[in-house]
Amino acid sequence: MTILATIVLLGVLIFVHELGHFWAAKAVGVGVERFSIGLGPRVWGFERGGTEYVLAAIPLGGYVKMQGMEDEVMEHLEGGPGNAPRRPREGDFDGRPIWARAFVISAGVAMNMLFAFVLYTSVAAFWGYRDMATTRVMAVDETSLPAGTEALAGLTPGAEIVGVGPVVPELWGDVRRGLVDAVPGPLTVETAAPSARFEIRIPEDPDARLALAGSLQYWVDAVVGRVEPGTPAADASMEAGDRVTSVAGVPVANWAEMVREIGARPGERVEIGVLRGETPLVRAVELESVGDGEDERGRLGVVQTLPEVAVPVRPGQAVAAGWDETVGITRLILGFLGDLVTGSVSPRDVGSIGTIAVASGEAASQGIATFLRFMALFSVNLAILNMLPIPVLDGGHMVFLGIELVRGEKLSVKQRIRWSKVGVWVVLGIMVWALGNDLLRFLGL
Question: What is the pTM for the complete model shown?
């Protein structure tokens, strides 16, 4: 299941990405010499309309070779030498104006984003959108509360939100919409267990309202949804369904409290209290240490169980849900990359094909809807990574075009080849680093 799911995931997303380049090239009159799914030696293929369609041996990438692209990397992919410089011919990529080349280069990323939107919308239409079956608050990020909403810092863990202005929420999405869609001005938030009223002022800025909604975390029980292989939790024989009741003798009632107590003990050997069914257990665990300096924290290696439900929607709502999920996942991935750069996230959290394979297999085992949602998430991830300003990636080519626009002339073939070599080594370095992380996780290091 895992191998098949991984092949389907990568094959479909690579095809979609390269199809974007292919269609865009045809639209602006650029000749396409080869459309390859996979890298390395040709396994199967055919020729039609002047284009060779190829299925290659290594299913970890793909490319569209356009007529006139002076790119040594492309030649390496095909196993041949670079071409000599020459004047652009009719149908050459290098002979097209900057806007046309930018359109072709960015089309792969655009297709991946569009594909993710279509997948999220389709899943919402056929299976309903995913929402959280709770209105209980787990925690409040006080630093994210906009001016005028500071009173919500008084929400206690476990408080059930029963009113957001005129909205009577049944799901967490109702709480979010009640805050985001509220008319700017005074608003009352009511809770039960304990019963309380919080008077706040909704800001006019839409981003501030989104920040307000994001500052409230919905309740998640401290129940293990999945144990990651090669982690302290796996070594301690923890299982999916285990309810964590204490960490190092400190009682925990929800996932946030569990994460806080584990994070405060990097590298320590602690006892984890667990309720398995009706049986109380104690697991001795040596927590992993991740991050450096002030960002160092403990890690157990478990994934939460979310209180998700599928909510049926009308077609128009499905489109809105698809858009919201696409935008939300994009922000999440960009935030992760930002945290990686600033050191807030450990480089050990970056994975490669091994991590992708495990996640693909798990998603597929949970049903077609979950697998399609994972494919949509990975499609957004692929789009964002391709736009990184690294030569050989789409983002690197866009940088070349930006330089050409400023200078008024193209970079020479020699310069592009030189920078492409640098890009190849950067990408290879990232791949080796990510593969190393996968190996360390597999070995439990």
Answer: 0.68
